[in-house]
Design a protein that fits this description.
Layout lengths: L2 H4 L3 E5 L4 H16 L8 E6 L5 H14 L7 H9 L1 E5 L5 H11 L10 E5 L6 H10 L10 E5 L6 H14 L5 E4 L6 H11 L13 E9 L8 H26 L8 H14 L8 H4 E7 L1 E3 L2 E3 L17 E7 L9 E7 L6 E8 L19 E7 L3 E9 L7 E7 L12 H11 L8 H20 L5 E4 L24
Parallel strand pairs: 1-2, 1-4, 2-3, 4-5, 5-6, 7-12, 8-17
Antiparallel strand pairs: 7-13, 8-11, 9-10, 11-12, 13-14, 14-15, 15-16
Helix pairs in contact: 2-12, 6-7, 7-13, 9-10, 9-13, 10-13
């Protein structure tokens, strides 16, 4: 056990009965318990509005773990994990509840409590109340020790992000703040660094001389799942593209850092964001497209349109689909379009980075049956399948010059190896104090600068939004973003 782990004594989860905690945080923490990666001295405190005792909370926690399809609640480990928890009931605006929290944190099960994690698994609008009350009861002290974890979205625009950052810095130092984007914890995203920088076969191709364009797609087949109070104010651009997709773009496009250290890695990602060509107001229409799902069939079942979802404002023009085109004006990527696309109620659940290589410079096969050769692709699938593939052409056996497409499959997970949930990796990093996969504020700020012209332009267009049937790949009008006629969305591996 490292010194940083032994110093951590308490892990507080605000919003402990919410969807994020029950679906992601609690099962991931349990799997870390099962793997023996949590310090023996680590105590958990669940903070929620429900009027429960600690025993009622622990009973609820057992039920949460049993309901997870990918969690096997081994009796001994399960009891050990559940016994780590205390429960504090209260409202986020109630200072007295935070006094009770302070008492719960001050009585660790063993050792001296010198370091506490505060995980804000709550709505962004509640961050300020929690942060101010932590300071009011002194839970942010000693300054420089405790850690606070903030979920995306970090602000609603560049101004609100700056205000939130100022509030955090009033009570916490930057090294205490962990801005989490769970996509950076996915193994394929981490493997992309190895794929690029550990293989001399790949890195020489990773530039404008060999790459025609890059596509990044995060498609969801689900709808808003009862989250209209949040989603109808956010939309797909704020909810997904400004954070998840922008982070994927930086990992694809970044230069090799001088060392695999947190700040060195994040320095290179910021350089990418600063190099993205700004979008003039008159050009937003050519660089971004939005739409909203209507009624349609998903997996054979009829689903309502967005405006028929419970809690959505009448005649809402909130986008559930967004596609955008960006250019990175640096030596490596000048002239290469990056196409980003995300949406809800699309045909299938899929996250993929698709990189199309340029055509060969010589039309060597123009007088053979092989008149035109389809381009080569490098495909990095993040979900549901975790794999990396390269497509190449080979001659088919026979008398004629005909080819078939062959995929070189670099799937790195063996059949007996279980996938790692992104939150497991990130939560362990929080416990161990490793910020490599977390976001620095200048990353957040520059990502907002990139999308800000789109947000402001759309805020003025309040009368109309394109629609697409649920269960499709989105509206055909979105194809207008492509620079060339032979460019189209890659929808599968």
């Amino acid at each position: 056990m490292t010194d940083s782990m032994s110093g951590l004594c308490a892990f507080v989860i605000f919003g402990a009965t919410g969807n994020l905690a029950s679906k992601k945080l609690l099962p991931s923490l349990y799997r870390l318990e099962l793997a023996g990666r949590l310090p023996d001295s680590l105590n958990f405190v669940a903070f929620s509005r429900r009027e429960w005792t600690t025993e009622q909370w622990r009973s609820y926690l057992r039920d949460v773990l049993r309901e997870q399809e990918d969690v096997v609640c081994q009796e001994e480990a399960c009891q050990r994990f559940v016994a780590r928890f205390d429960y504090v009931q209260g409202e986020f605006a109630d200072t007295a509840a935070f006094e009770r929290l302070k008492e719960a944190v001050a009585k660790p099960k063993m050792g001296v409590c010198s370091n506490v994690v505060f995980y804000l698994a709550i709505r962004p609008g509640e961050y300020a109340e929690v942060i101010k009350n932590l300071e009011a009861v002194g839970l942010n002290k000693p300054r420089g020790f405790n850690r606070i974890v903030i979920e995306k979205p970090f602000g609603q625009d560049i101004e609100s992000a700056q205000i939130l950052n100022q509030l955090l810095h009033r009570y916490f130092d930057e090294e205490q703040i962990y801005r989490i984007d769970h996509y950076l914890g996915k193994e394929t995203v981490q493997n992309l660094l190895v794929f690029r920088f550990a293989n001399t076969l790949i890195e020489p191709l990773w530039n404008r001389n060999f790459i025609d364009h890059v596509q990044i797609t995060v498609a969801e087949s689900i709808g808003i799942e009862g989250r209209a109070d949040y989603y109808d104010k956010a939309g797909a651009l704020r909810d997904m593209l400004q954070n998840h997709l922008m982070q994927l773009l930086t990992v694809v496009a970044m230069e090799p850092p001088p060392a695999l250290e947190a700040d060195a890695l994040r320095d290179e990602k910021v350089k990418v964001l600063r190099s993205i060509r700004s979008i003039p107001k008159r050009s937003v229409h050519a660089h971004a497209f939005r739409a909203q799902y209507g009624p349609g069939f998903v997996d054979g079942d009829m689903q309502p349109g967005y405006q028929q979802e419970s809690g959505v404002e009448e005649n809402s023009i909130t986008e559930t689909f967004v596609a955008a085109k960006f250019y990175i004006d640096n030596w490596r990527w000048r002239g290469v379009p990056f196409y980003l696309r995300t949406g809800k109620r699309l045909k299938q659940q899929m996250s993929m980075i698709a990189i199309r290589l340029r055509h060969p410079p010589q039309q060597l096969f123009r007088e053979t049956p092989l008149q035109t050769v389809d381009p080569n692709w490098i495909l990095l699938s993040i979900q549901p399948e975790e794999t990396m593939k390269m497509e190449i052409h080979v001659k088919q056996p026979g008398l004629d010059m005909e080819t078939r497409l062959l995929q070189l499959n670099a799937s790195y997970r063996r059949e007996d190896e279980k996938p790692l949930d992104a939150y497991e990796a990130l939560l362990l990093d929080v416990v161990e104090g490793d910020k490599t996969l977390f976001i620095r504020f200048d990353e957040v700020e520059w990502a907002w600068r990139v999308v800000d012209p789109i947000l402001k332009y759309w805020a003025q267009e309040r009368d109309f939004i394109h629609t697409y049937p649920a269960g499709t790949w989105g509206p055909h009008e979105g194809n207008r973003l492509f620079d060339a006629e032979d460019q189209e969305w890659r929808n599968s591996l």
